[in-house]
Please model this.
Amino acid sequence: MRLRKAIFLHALIVIALTATLWSPQGAWSADFSLPAFRLHWDEPSAPEQVSSVLKIVFVLTVISIAPSILLLMTCFTRIAVVLSFLRTAMGTQQAPPNQVIVGLALFLTFSIMWPVWQEIHREAVVPLQNQAIDADTFVQRAVDPLKAFMMKQTRLRDLKLFVSLTQQEKPQNPKDVPLAALVPAFVISELKTAFQIGFLLYIPFLVLDMVVASVLLSMGMMMLPPVMISLPFKLMLFVLVDGWNLLIGSLVKSFS
Model:
């Protein structure tokens, strides 16, 4: 009975306080008054206002799709996949971590794509800043260097596949290839190249695993995981042959 009375009394106190705070005549109502808020839409008084709004929307759109452009239209895909294959082949679990792999892939991408960025800046950005070209010409000049880079790394078979899927006329020259066909063809070509490099990376580590497993089996240590024993030898082999230098150098040269 005492518990029920306490709960009932507590409920009455809460109801009374709530009614006092939210009552228009309450003593505390002035302290909790909310400011008025109105949403008003003004018609543009000049064409410049509409142009400024469109520019802001365009910039925000470009910023939102910039990661996709970086991933799919540059060499980032091949580098990131190869580094992931290397970590898996060595069996080091999360070493190096994903942040290090992505950061290294980004800096290598900037280094490899630097000539392309310079050409875009020289042929598209500078004339636009000097008001020598319009927006359509700027987009065309900015896309052409990227298309030239992707065409060099894209296999003809993959390009034919996606050109046929777009159901458009056969392009007469590389500049006529639409981005809707070139970008996916470039991506699967990069994935195929990355898988080929990953296969070559797996071979020496796989041989080392087989040797360690054979030695352990001959010694009767069947319950001991071979990966645990082979990991130090993999690390030692990779360091002795200066594996990072060889791998990064080969990746950079593969785009030349």
Observations:
- The chain has a mean pLDDT of 76.
- The two ends are 87 Å apart (CA to CA).
- The first helix runs from residue 2 to 22.
